[in-house]
Specification:
The longest helix is centred in the first third of the chain and has 25 residues. This protein folds into two domains: 90 residues, Pectate Lyase C-like (3 Solenoid), CATH 2.160.20.120; 127 residues, Pectate Lyase C-like, CATH 2.160.20. It has one helix and 20 strands. With 276 residues, the chain is mostly beta strands. The protein has an 18-stranded mixed β-sheet that branches. Strands 2-9 form a two-stranded parallel ribbon.
């Protein structure tokens, strides 16, 4: 077949794909964007840096606070996924609420979307921003069950009391959690950063990879299962049973005197720190 027809066929396929995507987006009833968001074309391109790359849309330097979820709104949030950049503070508060503090000209590029009971915070696709100060996101949630850091920044979480809590770090940054009281904790770290928390849990399941550090030396647990890969590091406190699987250059340190089962490969190491 001549190249002309191949190109035309490819164009038709591309157009059909765009039409189908628009139809799917228009039929979605489960997602709701919160706050202003961009209502029109994509915003301006930022200045080009010395490396030839777009440095992002510069912040005005005038910081303002927008309320994206008001305390009078009736919403249920159990999970937060952070895909943007900045500092996130999550508190145990009723009812749920969200405020964003950043340069007044950058609010339109920060999105907050509810997907069922999941709150996703992100930057508009295709947009880079250069805020004068890191954006600050303050969230009140009465019943938090899961958090994921998939963007870049820090997440600071207050006390958590639940039967099960899930934490994931696939982006770049740090997560700090105050005192937790849990039956089960599930942690998955694959990006670059540190997770630190204290308190108690009956059981914890931890997976560390990438360039991550899991600091749970002050989190008392009865049983634990830890899987390490890459250069992941984990420090835990276990009293009864500990299962370790580690490879590459991962390292696991533990406090307490549990019964340990371990499987190691590569240059992985396990270090017993003794009673705590």
């Amino acid at each position: 077949m001549p190249c002309f027809f191949l190109r035309r066929a490819g164009l038709y396929v591309a157009i059909l794909g765009l039409v189908l995507a628009a139809l799917v987006a228009g039929c979605s009833d489960d997602d709701s964007s919160i706050g202003p968001g961009p209502g029109g074309p994509v915003g301006p391109v930022g200045p080009v840096g010395p490396d030839g790359e777009d440095d992002g849309i510069p912040g005005s330097g005038t910081l303002t606070i927008q309320e994206r979820i008001a305390k009078v709104d009736v919403v249920v949030i159990e999970q937060i996924v952070f895909r943007s950049e900045g500092e996130v503070t999550i508190s145990n508060g009723t009812p749920a609420s969200l405020t964003i503090e950043t340069d007044d000209n950058l609010h339109q590029y920060l999105e907050a979307t509810l997907r069922g009971t999941t709150l996703e915070i992100s930057t508009v696709d295709g947009i880079d921003i250069a805020p004068s100060e890191p954006p600050v996101f303050r969230v009140d949630v009465p019943d938090l069950r899961a958090v994921e850091l998939a963007g870049a920044g820090t997440i600071d979480i207050g006390a958590i009391e639940a039967d099960r809590f899930e934490l994931a770090l696939s982006g770049v940054g740090d997560v700090y959690i105050g005192t937790v009281t849990l039956d089960e904790l599930v942690v998955s770290l694959s990006g670059v950063g540190t997770v630190s928390l204290t308190g108690s849990t009956d059981r914890q399941e931890v997976w560390v990879a990438g360039v991550t550090v899991y600091d749970a030396a002050d989190l008392e647990s009865r049983t634990a299962a830890v899987t390490g890969a890459g250069t992941g590091q984990a420090t835990i406190w276990v009293s009864e049973e500990l299962e370790i699987t580690a490879a590459e250059t991962a390292s696991v340190s533990y406090f307490g005197e549990p019964a340990v089962t371990q499987t190691l490969a590569g240059l992985a190491t396990v270090t017993a720190q003794g009673a705590k």
